[in-house]
Specification:
Number of domains: 2
Radius of gyration: 19 Å
Number of helices: 11
Shape: globular
CATH superfamily of the largest domain: Aspartate/ornithine carbamoyltransferase
Order of helices and strands: HEHEHEHEHEHEEHEHHEHH
CATH class of the largest domain: Alpha Beta
Helix content: 25-40%
Structural class: alpha/beta
CATH topology of the largest domain: Rossmann fold
Strand content: 5-15%
Distance between the termini: 19 Å
Strand order of the largest sheet: 7-6-5-8-9
């Protein structure tokens, strides 16, 4: 199939075939990244603007590196020194960026729906790098890409997402993708952060850590999203850790070959102990590395690139 989407806004709206198409393209780019010359001229002459209005390390740097590996010109927007501090609206900021000749905007914003809004008013592709508590589609794509590298098929695989689900855009994007792949997904954490209505997304909800982790093949830890919470959702971090933090004992409940994931940033000693985050079962840094190839694929496809032009043997 050929790629027909101009924007990448959510994983909820993508079909399984489209997600797999991104993964296949990312596989080809990952092979290219393993060569001595890591750049390809796929987006030469294009200008990509990273419009990040929320703090970011991994996502922003990965998009920056992905665009440069595709030979695009990259401009990273500095919100702190921009006219947004003077009251300029998102619309005016984005329209000015487009008027300056940008060919694509990658946006991160604390307001859910911001990427969709820009996609309706701009004449250039828009990629969602995280919008509020809504979605983080490229994170969901790189997470499932990493899972497939270790597990092969995801159909029927037991996957646990543990932590602050209610406020997590990463969780939502992963849920949408994993359900499409046919995975057996369990959400676990305090009842205030993992409410029962989430089961309507096609997943299980558990507040019992031991039963949730039993024989799970993947556990993805999520940090507490303090910046999005308007009320205290549990008594203290210490009590959260005592009930739901992943330590060596609790990791023994997992499948013997289970992998441990985290989208970052990690709050060591809260949702996960350092020896597990740095241990043999951790694929956290693999997620970061895969994020470059996956974002190369997203930029390339949304810019009009042909999937057939990039083959896994390139």
């Amino acid at each position: 199939m050929s790629w027909t989407r101009r924007h990448l806004l959510t994983l909820e709206e993508l079909s399984l075939a489209e997600i797999e198409q991104i993964h296949t393209t990312a596989t080809a780019f990952k092979k290219i990244l393993g060569r001595s010359v890591k750049k390809v001229p796929a987006l030469r002459g294009k200008t990509i603007v990273n419009l990040f209005l929320e703090p970011s390390t991994r996502t922003r740097m990965a998009f920056d590196m992905a665009a440069k590996r595709l030979s695009a010109d990259v401009i990273s927007f500095d919100a702190a020194s921009s006219s947004t501090t003077k009251g300029e609206t998102l619309r005016d900021t984005a329209e000015n960026i487009a008027a300056l000749g940008a060919d694509m905007i990658v946006i991160r914003h604390n307001c859910a729906g911001s990427p969709l809004y820009l996609s309706k008013i701009l004449g250039i592709p828009v990629i969602n790098a995280g919008d509020g508590s809504h979605e983080h589609p490229t994170q969901g794509l790189l997470d499932t890409f990493t899972m497939k590298e270790h597990l092969g098929t995801l159909k029927g695989r037991r996957i646990v997402i543990l932590g602050d689900i209610l406020f997590s855009r990463v969780a939502r994007s992963n849920i949408h993708a994993l359900v499409k792949f046919g995975a057996d997904v369990t959400l676990c954490g305090p009842a205030t952060l993992v409410p029962r209505p989430l089961e309507t997304l096609g997943v299980k909800v558990s507040h019992d850590l031991r039963s949730a982790l039993a024989d799970a093949e993947v556990v993805m830890l999520l940090r507490i999203q303090h910046e999005r919470q308007t009320a205290t959702m549990f008594p203290s971090l210490g009590e959260y850790t005592s009930m739901f933090g992943l330590n060596k004992t609790r990791a023994s409940w997992l499948h013997p070959k289970a992998i441990i994931m985290h989208p970052g940033p990690i709050n060591r000693g809260v949702e996960i102990d350092s020896d597990l985050a740095d241990g043999d079962r951790s694929v956290i840094l693999e997620q970061v590395t895969n994020g470059i190839a996956v974002r190369m694929a997203c930029l390339y496809l949304c810019a009009g690139g042909s999937p057939e032009a990039v083959t896994p043997t390139a």
